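Structure (tokenized):
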């Protein structure tokens, strides 16, 4: 254990300094932990040409399409070392400064504000603004949206040298409907030297998922569906008739329907449209043909070249992106479920071995039975796919009806549509980005359950660690675990399960060979995991406390910071809490200190970019919104975190703003350290406060 402690401590200190498809399920046993079925690596195949691509995608999409298109009429929602020389900024001398709080050191993530210590660049309300860090004045503005577009159009940016890439997320949620939904998603490359100007605009046909930047090279993931307009059936058409019409349309669609397109507009306004060549489209062995992932590559130093964004496409879905210096991972969380699942089976009644109850799709926040007593680490059950038990258990040899399957039923059978709940599995795809140019498909694999966010994945010494929660179809049972996959082919080498039975994962952090997992329903078990042996990961220790941490951050040598909610013993949330954990001994984690603010919430609980920790001074800044009776306050609490405790230094608040006949206090979204000042950003402006006294130095309004 001492070896693990020393290794974990060294990794924790390093991170702190650097970072400012489907087979039958097994039956559930009495302990709700059925035997786990293994999920192997998923073979990845490139098409040899357009004819090969068209035949495969047509057939798979035809099997997937339902009476209402690629989905249902209604949906329910569940809760880089390749850089080239970059033009250097010509503004004032850069000061020591913090950067965006990212998952991996050296891998930048898009956010609404960036700084290089000499200037602050932010994008809000469709307008990019440049603020001089020395004079604290807005030196330039650039409107990026049109008069007919909403001012609240979501946007993030990445910055390298004198270039910024603004990612405007148009189109919202991708509903799989009768006709493909057009999107206003666009990526705008801006020159920041002198007066800012647009160099290029990239308009992909699809929805923006996420992006990562290593050096000056950005990889952007876009999701789209086949460009097929399905026929309009008669109002009285049956689902079977609608499906037949849709399948005919899919089977006659041209190859171009599955070739994602991108429009590129240069500084002069000239347009050109490019399609992904068939030879650059690949697919896993098991795929639907109803969703396409495209990875675009853009070197901010070079700008858009003749190759455009050098895109490659995978016939798969995805909504979570995680990147390292050598790999880009995209995971397809089982997130969206049609109310009436399109995947159905036509069966006759009665059917032997059919479940007596109607299965329902899992929901994000289950209310399972009371958790059982946690087993000791050596006897923890393995993670498994959990099924809803039938009302009266039967074996595969015993029919559920008194009618013999070999004899005709007393009544003529009628076809019924039995919804089939999709298996709760997550596909993970890896792209090699270690060389210049377009990424290379490397491998795909599957894990049971669903991921919380990108922090559920971590690459370390040739392996990918993935934390998931598996929930039964009725939402009554759940458990979590960590799977270790070999990086080369994403085949599983080991796993540890049985974490938080009856609960789900609320936060995950991997630091070197150690993993930290928080699950919650009524109490918060913080698990420490020994991941040194990829073939035999195991639980090292466990700490049970009330409430939970929704985000975990390295806090220095043997320390871990948690931001989340305090809760009563019955699991009712009470307000924001910040905890300092001593994890120097993984076998015995303990909480050293806690700050609690009753009736409050923090954006940092769901968006790690909102959290700032400056190790040099032990300063942490956490957005805080208090909503108690007579105590409504929006701002950011400033904390001092040492090896032994957390103290509250004060509160930063932005000026109140009048809108029509209402006065409100804007919430603080981001914070940065530049020199000896704390800069905070809201949707109304930027404020500069003295880092030591917290006295206000400047207020820079956006309007």
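Design, position by position:
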């Amino acid at each position: 254990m001492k070896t693990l402690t020393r290794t974990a401590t060294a990794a924790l200190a390093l991170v702190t300094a650097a970072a400012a498809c489907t087979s039958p399920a097994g039956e559930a046993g009495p302990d709700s932990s059925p035997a786990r079925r293994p999920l192997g690596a998923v073979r990845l195949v490139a098409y040899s040409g357009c004819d090969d691509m068209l035949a495969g995608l047509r057939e798979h999409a035809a099997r997937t399409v339902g009476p209402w298109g690629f989905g249902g009429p209604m949906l329910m929602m569940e809760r880089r070392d390749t850089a080239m020389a970059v033009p250097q900024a010509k503004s004032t001398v850069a000061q020591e400064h913090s950067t965006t709080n990212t998952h991996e050191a050296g891998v930048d993530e898009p956010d609404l504000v960036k700084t290089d210590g000499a200037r602050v660049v932010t994008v809000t309300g469709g307008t990019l603004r440049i603020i001089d860090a020395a004079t604290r004045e807005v030196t330039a503005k650039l409107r990026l949206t049109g008069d007919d577009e909403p001012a609240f159009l979501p946007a993030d940016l990445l910055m390298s040298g004198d270039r910024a890439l603004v990612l405007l997320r148009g189109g919202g949620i991708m509903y799989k409907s009768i006709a493909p939904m057009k999107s206003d998603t666009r990526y705008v490359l801006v020159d920041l030297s002198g007066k800012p100007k647009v160099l290029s605009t990239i308009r992909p046909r699809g929805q923006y998922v996420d992006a990562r930047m290593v050096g000056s090279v950005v990889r952007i993931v876009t999701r789209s569906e086949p460009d097929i307009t399905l026929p309009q059936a008669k109002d009285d058409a049956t689902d079977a008739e609608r499906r037949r019409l849709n399948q005919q349309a899919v089977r006659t669609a041209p190859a171009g329907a599955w070739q994602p397109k991108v429009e590129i507009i240069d500084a002069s306004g000239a347009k050109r449209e490019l399609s992904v060549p068939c030879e650059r489209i690949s697919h896993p062995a098991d795929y639907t043909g109803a969703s396409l992932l495209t990875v675009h590559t853009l070197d901010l130093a070079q700008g858009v070249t003749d190759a455009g964004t050098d895109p490659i496409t995978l016939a798969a879905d995805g909504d979570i992106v995680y990147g390292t210096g050598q790999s880009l991972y995209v995971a397809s969380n089982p997130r969206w479920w049609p109310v009436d699942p399109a995947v159905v089976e036509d069966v006759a009644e009665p059917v032997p071995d059919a479940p007596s109850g109607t299965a329902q799709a899992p929901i994000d926040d289950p209310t399972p039975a009371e958790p059982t007593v946690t087993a000791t680490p050596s006897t923890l059950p393995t993670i498994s796919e959990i099924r809803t038990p039938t009302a009266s258990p039967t074996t595969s040899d015993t029919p559920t009806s008194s009618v013999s399957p070999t004899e005709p039923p007393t009544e003529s059978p009628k076809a019924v549509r039995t919804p089939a709940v999709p298996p709760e599995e997550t596909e993970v795809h890896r792209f090699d980005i270690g060389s210049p140019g377009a990424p290379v498909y490397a491998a795909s694999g599957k894990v049971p359950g669903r991921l919380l966010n990108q922090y559920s994945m971590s690459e370390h010494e040739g392996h990918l660690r993935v934390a998931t929660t598996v929930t039964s179809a009725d939402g009554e049972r759940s458990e979590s675990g960590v799977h270790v996959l070999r990086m080369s082919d994403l085949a599983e080498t080991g796993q540890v399960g049985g974490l938080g039975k009856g609960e789900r994962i609320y936060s995950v952090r991997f630091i070197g060979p150690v993993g930290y997992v928080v699950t919650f329903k009524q109490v918060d078990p913080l698990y420490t995991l020994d991941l040194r042996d990829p073939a035999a990961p195991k639980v090292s220790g466990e700490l049970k406390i009330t409430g939970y941490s929704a985000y975990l951050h390295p806090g220095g040598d043997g320390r871990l910071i948690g931001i989340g909610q305090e809760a009563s013993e019955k699991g009712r949330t009470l307000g924001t809490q910040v905890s300092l954990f001593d994890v120097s001994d993984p076998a015995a984690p303990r909480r050293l200190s806690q700050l609690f603010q009753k009736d409050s919430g923090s954006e940092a609980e769901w968006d790690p970019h909102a959290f700032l920790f400056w190790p040099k001074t032990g300063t942490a800044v956490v957005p805080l919104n208090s909503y108690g009776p007579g105590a409504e306050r929006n701002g950011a609490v400033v904390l001092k975190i040492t090896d032994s405790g957390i103290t509250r230094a004060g509160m930063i608040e932005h000026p109140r703003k009048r809108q029509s006949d209402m006065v409100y206090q804007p919430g603080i979204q981001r914070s940065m350290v530049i020199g000896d000042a704390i800069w905070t950003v809201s949707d109304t402006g930027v404020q500069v406060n003295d880092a030591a006294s917290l006295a206000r130095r400047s207020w820079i309004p956006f309007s």
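Reviewer-requested clarification: Residues 5-43, 73-91, 172-182, 335-414 have pLDDT under 50 and may be disordered. Residues 1-30+366-388+414-421+449-598 form a domain with the Lipocalin fold (CATH 2.40.128.630).
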